[in-house]
Design a protein that fits this description.
The protein has 374 residues and is of the alpha+beta class. The chain contains 11 helices and 10 strands. Helix content is 43%, strand content 16%. Helix 2 runs antiparallel to helix 4, helix 2 runs parallel beside helix 5 and helix 6 runs antiparallel to helix 7.
Length: 374
């Protein structure tokens, strides 16, 4: 999720019984709710370093525990310096660490149900995990958290009694968290329905499922072995995924991944369907966009480049396309279909540089040039 959402969620947690730990709880929760994203400092080494380290060790179990210690230490030092001047008591370091660990853990748990995902097991396992329920920025989640904090502030301002203020804030926080859970439930239900409806609309227009690929289980995991697709006999369906939209929980980007291409279509769950399901399937198919994903020998050679390795380790749906000139020099480009816009059938890419990588390989198979962007 975005850092504004993480901040608002940390403030909401501070108005639950966690806030009874004592002074510094709010600061600890807000800092801990954002501190896993400290990996953005890797961007100082360029966008490739950012992709390599983004949502890596700081989003794993060791990172959560370690960052919780750092936050607890900073808050504890700040409280000691302040409280020595004001002679006030402050919570123990252990309690601050527990509170900070809760905040950092909630950050990770909020990242998993997004289409961007996170690397839960890093640094031991660098695979990404995601559930595709929410976009990176969910306006409804922002509205719920903002409204809960505002209502709690208004209710607390209406009474001078400290105990009543605490109860009002805890009550508004509980209501906000209930609506947050309902929002997640709605997104999860809509996501499941989008997958069901997409499978029905694509129907027999897609090839049979690939028998040689492993079951993905309850949570999506990538990157996958790109050599698996060419090993099957003929074209086959690898998977169907549904990516959430920014504004509506009922509009989804359906991505059907076939062993040699991607088929993309925008699906509106609230749109009425015609009586003839066959006509509806044909309309659905004709309105979808097809992106080739052909792993030639040149593509496999280019995939050994460092830039390609980093990008393929990040990208969930990397569509490969290549061009070999008359001198045998190959240009290979991958684009992550989660962020694809327009027609990329040509050599011109229309996505942002961060989600496209290009590698040039000479006739001898040596990488001459590589980097993000078209």
């Amino acid at each position: 999720m975005d850092n504004l959402t993480h901040t608002l969620f940390g403030l909401t947690l501070a108005r639950t019984p966690l806030g009874r730990v004592g002074r510094g709880t709010t600061v600890a929760l807000v800092l801990a709710s954002n501190v896993p994203d400290i990996d953005f400092v890797a961007a100082a080494g360029g966008p490739m370093k950012y992709l390599e380290w983004h949502r890596g060790p700081t989003h794993g179990a060791l990172g959560v525990a370690g960052l919780g210690l750092v936050v607890a230490g900073l808050v504890s030092l700040g409280l000691r310096k302040w409280d020595n001047a004001t002679a006030k008591r402050h919570p123990s370091f252990l309690w601050l660490w527990i509170v900070a660990t809760v905040g950092a853990t909630c950050h990770i748990l909020m990242d998993v149900p997004t289409s961007y995902g996170t690397r839960l097991l890093s640094p031991f396992d660098w695979h990404w995990f995601a559930k595709d329920w929410l976009p990176i920025v969910d306006v409804y989640l922002l509205a719920i958290l903002s409204a809960g904090l505002w209502i709690g502030r208004r209710a607390a301002a209406a009474t001078p009694d400290l105990a009543a203020i605490r109860r009002a804030r805890e009550r508004s926080a509980a209501i906000a968290l209930l609506f947050v859970a309902m929002n997640y439930g709605l997104r999860a239900t809509a996501h499941r329905q989008a997958l069901v409806q997409a499978s029905e609309l694509f129907g027999s227009l897609l090839p049979r499922p690939c028998a040689s690929l492993p079951d993905r289980g309850l949570i999506d995991r990538w990157p996958v072995d790109h050599e698996a697709a060419p090993s099957v006999s003929g074209r086959c369906l690898v998977e169907i995924a549904a990516m959430p939209s920014f504004l509506s929980p009922f509009r989804w980007l359906v991505i059907a991944r076939v062993s040699d291409a991607y088929q993309l279509h925008h699906l509106d769950l609230l749109a009425g369907g015609g009586a003839d399901s066959r006509v509806r399937r044909n309309v659905f198919w004709s309105a979808s966009r097809r992106y080739p994903d052909i792993w030639t020998a040149a593509v496999f050679q280019a995939a050994t480049a460092r830039a390609a390795q980093t990008f393929l380790g990040f990208s969930r749906f990397p569509a490969a396309r290549s061009f070999v000139d008359h001198e045998g020099r190959a240009t290979v480009r991958w684009t992550d279909m989660r962020f694809a816009t327009g027609d990329i059938g040509s050599q011109r890419a229309r996505t942002r540089d961060l989600f496209t990588v290009t590698v040039h390989v000479n006739a001898k198979g040596t990488v001459e040039q590589e980097g993000l962007g078209p």
